[in-house]
Design brief:
Elements lengths: L26 H15 L4 H16 L9 H25 L8
Helix pairs in contact: 1-2, 1-3, 2-3
C-alpha cells in the first residue's frame, strides 16, 4: 500500500515542457535588441551602439552558417556595421585639422 508513495508524476515536475535553457535571452530577443541599438546608434553614441548591434545580430543569427537566418538578426548586423562605419568616418573627420573643413 505504501510502496508507491512518492513515486508518482511529481518526481520531476519541471522537466516536462521545458526544452531550452532560460539562462539568457533567446535569438529573437537578441535580434530586436540589435535593431534597436542600431537605430539608436544613428542618433547618439554610434561608435558604441554600432558594435553592440553587430554583436547582438551575430549572436541572433546562431552558429550555423547555412540555412535561413532571422530577418531581424541580419538587419541588426547590417545596420550596426553601417552605423560603426559612419561613426569611424565622423571621428576621422573630426580629428583632422580644421575639424574636417577644407580651409
Amino acid at each position: 500500500m505504501m510502496a508507491s508513495f512518492g513515486h508518482g508524476t511529481r518526481r520531476h515536475p519541471r522537466s516536462r515542457g521545458r526544452t531550452w535553457s532560460r539562462t539568457g535571452p533567446d535569438r529573437a530577443t537578441l535580434g530586436i535588441i540589435g535593431v534597436i541599438c542600431a537605430v539608436a546608434g544613428f542618433f547618439v553614441l554610434g561608435i558604441v551602439l554600432g558594435p553592440v548591434a553587430m554583436v547582438c545580430g551575430w549572436l541572433a543569427m546562431g552558429r550555423s552558417r547555412a540555412g535561413s537566418r532571422p530577418v531581424t538578426a541580419v538587419v541588426a548586423f547590417v545596420l550596426g556595421a553601417i552605423d560603426t562605419l559612419l561613426a569611424v568616418i565622423w571621428l576621422a573627420g573630426a580629428a583632422t585639422p580644421g575639424n574636417g573643413m577644407l580651409f
